[in-house]
Amino acid sequence: MSDSGNYTCTYQAQVSGRWIRSHQSEPLGITLTRPPPQPKVSRHPEYPIYVAGETVTITCAVSNRDSAERFQLVKGSTSVMNSTRNRQPLTYTIKSLTRDNEGSYLCFTQMQVSGRWIHSPSSPAFVMVVTNPPPPPTISMNPDIPVYLPGESVTITCRVPRGTSPGGFQLLKDSNLLKNITSNEPSLSFPIRNVTSRSEGSYMCLSQIQLSGRWIHSPSSNIIRISLTDTRPPPTITVIPEQPVYVSGETVTITCEVPHGESAGRFQLLKDSIAVVESTRSQRSLTYLIRNMTASQGGSYTCSYQIQMAGRWLPSDLSIPIQINITDVPPQPTISKHPESPVYVAGETVTIVCRAPPGYTTGRLQLLKALAPVIDSTRGQETLNYTVRHLSTSNEGDYTCAYQTQLWGRWIDSSPSQPITITIAHAPAVPRILVNPAYPVYMTGESVAINCAVPNGNPPGRLRMLKDGATIISGQVEQNGPSLTYSSRYVTRENEGSYTCLHEIELFGRWIHSAANHAVQINVTDVPPPPTVSLSPTYPVYLSGEDVRIACVVPARYDFSRLRWSLRWSEGNVTTEIQTTHDPVANSFGTVDRNGDGNYTCLYEREVAGRWIPSLPSESVTVHRLAVRAVISMDHQSGRYVEGSIATISCSDPDWNHVNSFTFYKDSALLHSLDAVSGHHFVSLTIGNISEMDQGSYTCKCGITVLGRHLSSHASNSMLLTVEEMLKPVISIDSDDVDIGGNLSITCMNMRDHPGVSFFIQRVDDVSSSRFRPVLLKDNIAIFTVTNVTQGDGGVYSCGYEVMANGTVVAYTISERVEVTVNAKSWTQLLTRYLYVTGVAVLIVVVAVAVAIKLKKKKGSANLNESTEALNVVNPTSTKETTL
Questions:
Q1: Contact 789/823 with Cβ under 8 angstroms?
Q2: What does pTM read for this prediction?
Q3: Which of 26-35, 118-127, 353-362, 839-848 has the lowest mean pLDDT?
Q4: Beta-ladder partners of 731
Q5: Cβ neighbours for 799, distance < 8 A, ≥ 6 positions apart
Q6: Which tens digit of pLDDT belongs to each residue from 187-243?
Q7: Among residues 196, 278, 435, 501, which is most buried (max CB within 10 A)?
Q8: Residue 132: C-alpha distances to residues 44, 662, 836 (Å)
Q9: What is the DSSP letter of 752?
């Protein structure tokens, strides 16, 4: 610790033979500290060897907790875990150990001093060894049977798998240790003599070996069970039906059944200790059926069973006995009906009489229908009367009677009497009644038919139609056959009412009628009067696309809670319903014209009893439309003009209607109106000396008078007129001093594209300048040349260009002036003559370069300027022209 402190340094430099010392450096502090104490590592549980699948917990700790701030567990050279809480021991739990967890484990502590983590010396290491448990042994018992009787013996044997070194065995019963024996033998037997109830249970065994001083147990073997049983309890015996006495001819079923919880076995049924039937297969019960019993089958019945266990049959005790007693059947009674008839009609009355045999005084009588009891008499009666009033189909059937006598507490039934039959004649089927058409209410004048028909599959008879429960006086109201139709061609108020029909058939000379069917109600109402119809606005003719409102109004003082409207449009022989409106409040409605000529009518519907009753249709109104269009054009379809030029704008009707007038608009404002010449369908407007004030969007309309109404078309298509400024051309000469006999070239350049451009050059004292001719004209550049210059070619020159339209100059402009001086002939003229061809070639090259530069500039500005296509000159024929 004595080395702790602050350290500084200096250095020396030799100057002129002298060592000069530097100033001291900044101090550097060095602090020494002791490392943290060595931790201890422990494990729980602590074994010299572990078995795969076990759990172990490793703990790192120091005696003084404040001396360690965090821990690190290392296996071999690999960090396993770092503690996350300061000054707390590290705990690391390994669940379900595997061989991968084997290795040397140690730990460190760390303490932070002045921002640095100081490691302690490592703890002593421990080595973890993991082994797999020995394989499970097998367990068996001899004899191997599922159940044992008290007093028998059994031997349980535990055996380790072949190739396994044994060390000992443990025998467990119901998971409790029974035997723990150390042995080097591969198997060990545990005999059990005189098996008792204490021997019952589940058995398994474990093998064990000793490694590094620790006993390692194998997994448990499979489980075997020792079960003990006693002698079988007796079966149960039952008889169905259970009676104190049975009648000859009856059927009885005797059933033997093993007690609840017992296994199936073989049965033996005995009568008076003599075997009657034996089963040959194992079953849980034995059923013995005795049909048509006779007196010889009476007696005492018992049964027993045997069950098979471990190859043996174990008999049970005998069941309790049951006694079966048998007697003969009593003689049958007599039966009759009053009045006697082979058939009865629903609603009539009949009496059925039952009488016991003569001399029968003890017992009771019973009436049966289809062998089911209907009524019983009281005890001691010899006769039973049963009266049925208001016969119905439920009373149909065969009736018999019997009497009963009591023997040993049981009522014994006699044989049944001879049967009698009650037949009920069904009332005719209720006919169907239908109305066609089926409406909740009918309008006066409509037709209606009421049809009455016998349902399919029923015999026809006679049909009768009734109104309000009474016979109808007029019309077809009665007919023999399957159906009847009562028709009314023109319904009136007198037809209102409730209609039913009856179906009648003849049975043994008597007409039997059906029940009345459900009534149909016929309600009648008057047809509502027609509405009135009108157009708004009211014109004899409409412009195509113009809105027109059709108003329908119900008659005055004709009020309804709810209306429905329909508008119908007809053209020729075709009628179409084009609009239906539901309106629960308003009594009128409107619609917009559908751009269709034709006649329009409307009607309304009144809701009566759920049906919409249409009114009579209104009178018709006629809608006639006329298509009037206008098209505008310019003599230059591009709409581009230069200042000072002339524009011709035309407006026409492409449908060739008899147009009265034309109106021109600029930027939607009125510009000028013109009357059309009779028989012509267009007019032209001329704008002279065009300026920027004339720029804008031009449209036009045309007007026509039809049936006294003046119609104006919709606005035509729009044409955009643009005006371009004429820039002065640029004039240049190859040299302003020219020798006599030499050559002169003058270049004239237009800085903007214009359609129909023609270049010219002029001299102040000679306008024609006929001696100059252009030798190159391209891309708005013209080059004029004069060969063999004379003294007269000198002077002041200017150039210009003209804009042509339809062969006429509409505008032109002149450049600035340049002066040309002609010199007397000198020695240079000879050289010029010889170099003439070379000069012209050089001049052409210069011009080509200028053209290329200009084209490049034009391409660069293509996104900012309009298209420079040449204007197509259009000069439409016009019969009327106006100049502005």
A1: no
A2: 0.37
A3: 839-848
A4: 748
A5: 729, 731, 746, 748, 759, 760, 761, 762, 782, 784, 814, 815
A6: 889 999 999 889 999 999 999 888 888 888 889 899 999 988 777 889 999 999 999
A7: 501
A8: 19, 113, 117
A9: S
